[in-house]
User: What shape does this take?
Amino acid sequence: MPTRWIRPSISTLGKHFLRRSFYSKTAEFVTRDPQGRPCQRQVDIRVGDEHEAYVLVPTDVGDAIKAACKHNGSSFPQDKQSLEFNHDRRDFTCESAPYLRLSIYHQLPRRSDAKTSSATLYLFGVTHTIALDGTFDAWFTEQSLASWHELKPTLDKLKDM
Assistant: This one.
């Protein structure tokens, strides 16, 4: 049974309207080493319930994905990266870095009968988030990113006190 982490609920007037569960899972991350050879390693990730369309990855994995995609011509904003999720293979890939792959052993919900869904990697916080585009989880992460940008200068000042 996977380890389960509960995110605190947000409530107003005693009614809970947001609650997320985190489950620890393992994923396979494939990239290239400095000599250009494929290398793979197991990484710890967090996923939500079956209806949730996000994956939390360690920051080193998110940074490596962004660097590989950027190195190969991607021109996405600094704190985001466009990815694609293949529902049949259960992996995230980057069009500009075809050797790069993050394979998860957890199915994310399909929005249509298509084999793939577009996704975005968000590079902020203590973990990085990959969310399927057009889902509540993508909206939630966009809102979190906006809050991060707004609060980061103040948090940096507090850190130095």
Q: What stands out?
A: DSSP finds two helices and eleven strands in the chain. Helices lie at 59-71, 136-159. Residues 8-12 have pLDDT under 50 and may be disordered. The chain has one domain: 17-159.
